[in-house]
Every structure is written in structure tokens, then in C-alpha cells.
Amino acid sequence: MPPPATLGRCPHPVPTDLLYILPLLFARLKGSSLRTCSSPSLPSSNSISLVSFDPFWTLSVGFAELPCRVLGGRAVIMGPVRGLKKRKRAEKNAAARVTAAAPGSGDWWDDFSRRITGHLSKEPRKFESIFKISRKTFNYICSLVRDDLMARTSNFAFTDGKILSLEDQVAIALRRLGSGESLLNIGVSFGMNHSTVSQVTWRFVEAMEERGIYHLKWPTSPEMEDIKSKFEEIQGLPNCCGAIDTTHIMMCLPSVDASNKVWVDYEKKHSMVLQAVVDPDLRFRDIITGWPGSMNEVPVLQSSGFFKMCEKGTRLNGEKVELPEKLEVREYVIGDSGFPLLPWLLTPYQGKDLADGKIEFNKRLSATRMVAQRALARLKGMWKIIQGEMWRPDKHRLPRIIYVCCLLHNIAIDLEDEVRDVMPSSSDEHDTSYKQQFCDITDDNGSILRDKLSRYLSGRLPP
Predict the structure, then answer these.
(1) Nearest one of 339, 249, 260 to 289, comparing CA atoms
(2) Which residues form the DDE Tnp4 domain (predicted)?
(3) Cβ contacts of 102 within 8 Å, gap of 6 or more
């Protein structure tokens, strides 16, 4: 009789689901009997009856050659692994993705443009007109998100079964963000299910949040000196570090839901607020979003990290500028009448019958802060998913979409994308249906700084 066969102890416990169907053990000698063995890694309740034979795998135990597989560096007698077919399919799809991602002999755009159907097919199939950015910028964005989009397995495919390449995914996401069209329309235009459009866009948003973060940051000291110089060239405001403004991202929400009342703004619309600090090149330097439209500029400002840092003196704390007659001016930003007048935030003079010097100051300040209005107008004009009313958006995801649109806005500026300069210019108004709000909060130090600048700009310095 052949020696008994038992499972050797493994370095790690053997999961029960790996011991699915164990092979029947046969000795080389004819007439050997069926035996039962137990794994020392499992409790006694998991005793294993060996019920089949697979000659492909062998293990020598005494004088017998027994079916086995290797796990954790030790031989373990076991049968076919559950889910083998499913893994093979996954491996096949992964191989298809690699093939799709590999550069082909032709240009990616040639193949992609041939897929365009629907209303887009009636227009000139020009890359720049569909995505509103140049190929150079598109390639850079692809390089940013490549690792994130290609590292995660997915079965995203066109309706003809072709797996989406990296460029396909980025193109679909950019079209969704740039056009603001429905998921269904984009799916029809590019030949895919609308759920695929949704998933691809969200994965792109997640990747851009991580990889594009350095395109939206507060300026370094050398950058700030350049910003101050450019602001002064506009209307003569010295030591100005930015222009601040807010805009509303409108949403279509069901009025019957009482929880949606908090999103109703002063114009009786559902909206989410975006506050931004902008430099002279229309680049966003600081943003905060996610707050409901029922909040006006003051509480949104006070909730921001920008406000808290300025109040603590860790931001806008650079060197003061000394003007004629020993007039010192600290760093500051400018805003409209909806913001409070603070030591580091200057707003226009309010009221009627203002003195000529104050009127002149208001004109210069208004002309200078137009950069913020232009930036927000261009943001909405380029990334139309946040223009107009969004149909019942996910209010937890919307701030992240807004943030990524701001990143894309900055990337086009940083890369000096020529397409943004030839696109039809949008109005400087970003909240055309919203009336100007007024804030009466005034800080004494803010008033003193504003009066100093008013006298300096009007040329009426004290003797």
C-alpha cells in the first residue's frame, strides 16, 4: 500500500475558496485506495476529500506522483481555481487596452474624428473647434493624467467594442466639460453609451484634481513682483496683488424638495457660489466653491482659507511700497462693492455726490478689477458645463468639477494656448442676470489705505 498523502503546511493559511475541487490522489501502483487528508492551515471542519485526477500537475510523496499546485513557495494539493475564466477575460481586456494606448501608425485624431456622428458631423471636424484647445495643450493634459487613467483597469469601450485609449478618454471628458452637452448627446456624437461618458468624465476629473494642482497656486515672491507691476500698468494702482470676485453656477433643482431652499440665491435661482482671486493674466490664483447661493460675498469670503491667512498676516504680507511724501502702501487685493472694505481688500467708495478724487479712484479700481470679471466670463465661456443651468447636478461632485474647470483654464494660460486667443470673445459679464450687491462693512485701516491711494492717484497729496 502506498504511503498516505497529506497537505504540507504552507507559509500562509490556505483560503477555503482556493481549495475548490481537489483532485483524486492515485499512487503509481495500481489499486491504491482513495484517501482523505486535512490541511494543517485549516480547522478540522475543512477536511478535504480528494475527488479527481489531473495529470498536468504532479508532486512526489513517498513513491507516489500526486496532483498539486504551488502556493507561497510550498506545494499544495488543490484543484482548479474558481474564477479562472473571469481572470482570463480581464487579462484579455487589459491586453486590448495596452494595444489601444500604444501609438499607431496613423494619427489618433484621424481615427477618432471618423467616429463623430450626430450634429457634430455636420460641422467642420476641426480639433480646435470641438475641444477649444490646441493639440499641444491636449497632449500635455494627456501626459498629466496618463498614469491615473491607464493604471486603473476598465472596460470602457465604443459601441463597436473598441477599447477607449487614453486620448479617447481625455477627448470625451474635455468635450463634456467644454460643451456642457448632455451625456446622451455626447454618447451619440462619439458612438458610446451615455453611462460610459459619465464614468470617463468623472475619472478624468479625479485625475486632474491630483495631477493639475500645481497650475492653481498662490504666486511665489518673484511671480508676485511681476503681478504687481502688471496691475500698476493697467490703471496705476501700486502694490496691488489681485482682483477678487464671485460668480454663481446655476442649477436646476426640484422646488418641492425643502432641502434645496438653501441653494436659492437673492435672484430666486438655485446656484452654487465660486469665489476667485485673479492675476492680470486672467489666471486664477485662489478659489473657493461649494457654498450655496443663499450666501452672499461676505460669509463666503470669511469662510475661505484666503481670508483667514490674510487676517493672520500670513498672506499679502510682503514689503510695503513707499510713494512720494513718504506714503506707504501695503499689499492688497481689490473687489467690488459686494465685499467688505478691509486693510487688505479695497472696494469702491459708495454714495452719491462723491468728490472728484474719489470718483477717479472708483474709475481706476473698476477698470483694474475687470480682469476678474473677464476671467470668470472666459471660464464659463470655455467650460460650458458650468454655464447656464445644470440639470440636477450632484452637489458633492459639482465643486470638484468647477475646480477642474479652473485648472484647465489656467493650463491654457500657462501653455500660452493660441486657440484661446482666436476663440470668439465672450462678454465681460459672467452673472448677467444678477444685480450688484452692496456691503456696508468698513474697517478703519482699510479706509485710511483707500484714502491714501485716492490722494496719490488724483495727484493731491498733502503738503
Answers:
(1) 249
(2) 244-410
(3) none
* Cell matching residue 238: 501700486
C-alpha cell at 124: 467642420
Which among 154, 146, 161 is positioned nearest to 115, based on CA atoms? Answer: 161
Of the candidates 143, 282, 283, the residue with the CA atom closest to the CA atom of residue 211: 143
Within this chain, do residues 67 and 207 fall inside the same structural domain, yes or no?
no
pLDDT over 60 (residue 278)? yes
Which residues form the domain of 54?
A: 16-76
Give the angle 360-365-369 at the CA atoms, nearest 5°: 155
List, in order, residues 6 or more apart from 72 with CB less than 8 Å away.
10, 11, 12
Cα–Cα distance between 142 and 133 in angstroms, integer?
Answer: 13
Q: Which three cell numbers stand for residue 177?
A: 466639460
Chain center to CA of 166: 16
Same domain, 242 and 204: no
pTM of the predicted protein model: 0.75
Q: Round to whole Å and give the CA distance between 270 and 251.
A: 5
Same-domain check for residues 256 and 121: no
The three cell numbers of residue 6 are 497529506
Domain total of the chain: 3
Cell of 61: 510523496
Going by DSSP bridges, is the β-strand pair 327-329/74-76 parallel, antiparallel, or unpaired?
unpaired
CA distances from residue 130 to 151, 155, 227 in whole angstroms, order as listed: 27, 25, 33
Q: What interhelical angle do 370-382 and 398-414 show, nearest 10?
A: 110
- The half-sphere exposure of 382 on its side-chain side, counting CA atoms within 13 A, is 27
**How far apart are the C-alpha atoms of 354 and 172, rounded to whole Å?**
53
Q: What is the pLDDT of residues 30-64, one digit of tens each?
A: 444 433 344 343 344 443 333 333 333 333 333 34
* Claim to verify: residue 390 and residue 248 sit in the same structural domain: yes
Q: Are residues 344 and 411 in the same domain?
A: yes
Residue 341 near residue 446 (C-beta atoms within 8 A): yes
Residues 207 and 225 in one domain: no
Which residue is it, cell 453656477?
A: 249
Name every residue whose Cβ is closer than 8 Å to that of residue 242 and which is 6 or more positions away in sequence: 227, 277, 278, 279, 285, 286, 333, 334
Domain boundary among 211, 239, 255: 211
Nearest to 432 by CA among 281, 269, 278, 289: 269
pLDDT at residue 82, as a whole number: 55
Long-range contacts, stretch 255-264, CB < 8 angstroms, 24+ apart: 261/294, 262/292, 262/294, 263/292, 263/293, 263/294, 263/395, 264/293, 264/294
Predicted confidence (pLDDT) per residue in 162-182, tens digit: 999 999 999 999 999 999 999
